[in-house]
């Protein structure tokens, strides 16, 4: 019985010593990525892409508004058949603009992911290298909203990781070119005969 008690005490002592031998560190991963030079390049490209999309949508919306105003002025001179056709054309144009706007938002989010992925991979590699060199067993992300509620007795290694990033080759942001541009909707609405021959699914792909 005494031998079992001593053995249990030794195991507990070894386990406790092993736990204390572990080194813990933390850093704000979001802040780390935002300080990288490539992050500024990514943001500039995203802003340029967003501005181009907004300008195109504004142009289409202005065109739709002009067509609607013209319809209101000339509606009294239309036959009922022509009037209904004009209304349908305006509705279809509005629907296409809405779909174009939604596709642009999806493409914008996709492009942002494409641009940020190599940055996060590079940051992760730098963290691993710093942790290996300095013997850290765990490195926690202290960014807000990542689920880490409390941390004690750890070292903030963001300065070490930043220094490690400086020694790594820069990312060629131009090499990552995604095909994220949505096809601009055609402002010319097809004639009624063509509308009957073209299904909505096929028309959307144009």
Write the layout of secondary structure elements.
Layout lengths: L1 H20 L2 E4 L1 H6 L2 H38 L5 H55 L3 E4 L13 E2 L1 H9 L25 H6 L2 H6 L1
Parallel strand pairs: 1-2, 1-3
Please, what is the oligomeric state?
single chain
How much strand content do the residues show? Answer: under 5%
Structural class from helices and strands? mainly alpha
User: Largest sheet, if any?
Assistant: 3 strands, parallel
Query: Taking Cα atoms only, what radius of gyration do you get, to the nearest Å?
Result: 30 Å
How are the strands of the largest sheet arranged? 2-1-3
Order of SSEs, N→C? Answer: HEHHHEEHHH
Helix content: 55-70%
Strand count: 3
- Outline the low-pLDDT stretches: 1-17, 187-206
Number of distinct helices: 7
Q: What number of domains? A: 1
Rough outline = elongated
Distance between the termini: 83 Å
Chain-averaged pLDDT = 80
Signal peptide: 1-19
Keywords: Coiled coil, Signal
InterPro entries: Chaperone_Skp (IPR005632), Skp_dom_sf (IPR024930)
Region (Disordered): 165-206
């Amino acid at each position: 019985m005494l031998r079992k008690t001593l053995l249990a005490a030794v195991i507990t002592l070894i386990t406790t010593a092993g736990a204390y031998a572990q080194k813990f560190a933390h850093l704000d991963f979001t802040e780390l990525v935002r300080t990288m030079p490539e992050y500024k390049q990514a943001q500039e490209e995203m802003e340029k892409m967003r501005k181009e999309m907004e300008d195109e949508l504004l142009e289409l919306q202005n065109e739709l508004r002009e067509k609607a105003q013209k319809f209101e002025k000339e509606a009294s001179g239309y036959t009922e058949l022509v009037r209904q056709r004009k209304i349908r054309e305006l509705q279809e144009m509005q629907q296409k603009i809405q779909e174009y706007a939604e596709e642009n938002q999806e493409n914008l989010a996709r492009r942002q992911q494409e641009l940020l992925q190599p940055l996060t991979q590079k940051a992760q590699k730098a963290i691993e290298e710093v942790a290996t060199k300095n013997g850290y067993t765990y490195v926690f992300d202290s960014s807000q909203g990542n689920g880490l509620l409390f941390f004690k007795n750890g070292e903030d290694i963001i300065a070490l990781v930043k220094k490690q990033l400086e020694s790594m080759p820069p990312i060629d942001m131009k090499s990552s070119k995604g095909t994220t541009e949505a096809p601009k909707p055609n402002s010319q609405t097809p004639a009624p005969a063509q509308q009957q021959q073209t299904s909505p699914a096929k028309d959307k792909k144009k």
